[in-house]
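Milestone M4 deliverable, item 7.
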Amino acid sequence: MLAETVCSAVSAAGLGVAAVTAYRKRFLSAFRIAAYSLVPIGLVMTGVVGWLADTAFSPTAWAGFGVLGLAWVLFATTRAVERRGGGTRKERRAARAAAGRDAVAPAVSEPSRGRGSTPAARPQSAPPRSKGAGDDFSDIEAILKKHGI
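Output delivered:
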């Protein structure tokens, strides 16, 4: 009952402010204020305010919110454990089976596997360039040569 009275008073005050604003020839603002001031009385008339008041003072409603919060915590916890643990049991089993297999691609040459006794043949380096555009890539070429590429 108190909530309905407060909402009615707020709406009446808002409509009064809208009337004063319209008197000052600011019609757009007056209509906007009137629209906002009609919302509380509309909520009272539809029963939303009564429902909210009943919910706010209902222990059953608060217990329901608690149960919803617990459900959310359980969902979040299982999600975090799943991410940390590597997924489901089936995914972990598949990962263990994949780790047992050879991790090298089948088309990889012998020297890259580390079994070859001689290093791979390296191509002859290009003749030195004159200063200019080639100087920008000299550090990149040095890194590539260092890694045998």
